[in-house]
Amino acid sequence: MTSTILDHAVFGVFSTHALHLADKYGVFVHLAADGPATPARIAEARGIDQDTLERLLLVLTAVSVVERDADGAYRLASGTKDLLDPEHPRYIGDFVRHLVVNTTGQLERLDAYLAVGKAVADRDRPAVFDSIYRDEVATGEFLEAMWNLSFGVSQELVRLAALDDARTLVDVGGASGAFAVAALSHYPRLSVTVFDLPQVGPFLDRTRRAEQLEDRLHFAPGDFFRDPLPEADCLSFGYILSDWDDATCVELLRKAHAACAPGGRVLLMERLFDEDGGPLPTAVMNLSMHVETEGRHRTAAEYTALLEAAGFADCTVHRSSWDKHLVVGRKP
Ligand SMILES: C[S@@+](CC[C@H](N)C(=O)[O-])C[C@H]1O[C@@H](n2cnc3c(N)ncnc32)[C@H](O)[C@@H]1O
């Protein structure tokens, strides 16, 4: 028997899978579109097995993802509606799929890391993004997960960034354009260049067309370890520094400093550790960074120190109401 204190730790693996499967088989879409429904009705509508569905829904009820009425119908809990509705900007289903399909299988490497250290265990491993971008499907799925993580919160981050004075922004590693689209819709005089690996180009092109931003959203293919960064009033890094160690981060920020106009700014958008080591999502994603990348999550003070080491000054921290926050440095 486990105590309730350990429930999350012991049973979390089941609730994550239940969440992913309910999303994958359209259970949440059904509840979002049609309202409360019994397992029998959902199973019939989605063509899935009722017994398995009932068991998944009981787990999801226990962790407050859905709620069950007295008559046995299930509904999305009020706090989870937006996050589970694929039509909503806060939808997280693609990110959960990434955790279940890509990350979970890699967790066993932590065993070897503990035994011999990451450097030794990963000696023969391909470079991080060679593995993530191993084929077009994997590339597309990763970029969808990034869009899920970044698009909703970017609406808030662009306001916190106060870009009214900037005319040009380079989003370094800007992926399929989540932050770029948010910035362009808030600042009509801004033009944005996403600088990213060439494999990302077709996915950003889709965004440019879908959002009708061909004239204001541009793509600069490149490798930020080999190439200089394009010049701009402002350069942004969303979930980039958390992929790399401190020395690499300072190297990238020095490149940003060289490309940044005098008086311009660099924006770091990242999860932040509290001084006490929380919150839970940052602690978990810090472990995920360990197996998926060469980086880690940091406190606001640690990001400020990296910015200062690269020559930025007047650093400020702006917290969003989500889990991605903003640290700004100014080029004197
Ligand atoms: C974790 S994703 C972050 C995506 C996006 N900025 C966001 O906040 O959602 C890291 C991004 O860095 C890009 N990237 C990785 N290595 C790179 C390199 N050497 N040069 C340019 N971009 C790179 C990836 O293609 C990817 O888009």
Give your account of this protein's structure:
The chain has 332 residues and is an alpha/beta fold. Helices cover 48% and strands 17% of the residues. It folds into two domains: 4-88, Orthogonal Bundle (Arc Repressor Mutant, subunit A), CATH 1.10.10; 97-330, Vaccinia Virus protein VP39 (Rossmann fold, 3-Layer(aba) Sandwich), CATH 3.40.50. It has helices spanning 7-24, 27-34, 39-46, 50-62, 81-84, 93-103, 109-116, 118-121, 128-132, 136-161, 178-186, 201-210, 246-259, 280-292, 300-309, and strands spanning 66-68, 74-76, 168-172, 191-196, 217-221, 232-238, 260-270, 272-273, 298-299, 313-318, 325-330. The longest helix is centred in the middle third of the chain and has 26 residues, at 136-161. The N and C termini lie far apart (60 Å).
Write the SSE topology:
Layout: H1 7-24, H2 27-34, H3 39-46, H4 50-62, E1 66-68, E2 74-76, H5 81-84, H6 93-103, H7 109-116, H8 118-121, H9 128-132, H10 136-161, E3 168-172, H11 178-186, E4 191-196, H12 201-210, E5 217-221, E6 232-238, H13 246-259, E7 260-270, E8 272-273, H14 280-292, E9 298-299, H15 300-309, E10 313-318, E11 325-330
Observed structural traits:
332 residues, 2 domains, Arc Repressor Mutant, subunit A, binds S-adenosylmethionine, seven-stranded mixed β-sheet, Rossmann fold, alpha/beta, 15 helices
Précis, in short:
This protein is an alpha/beta fold. It has 15 helices and eleven strands.
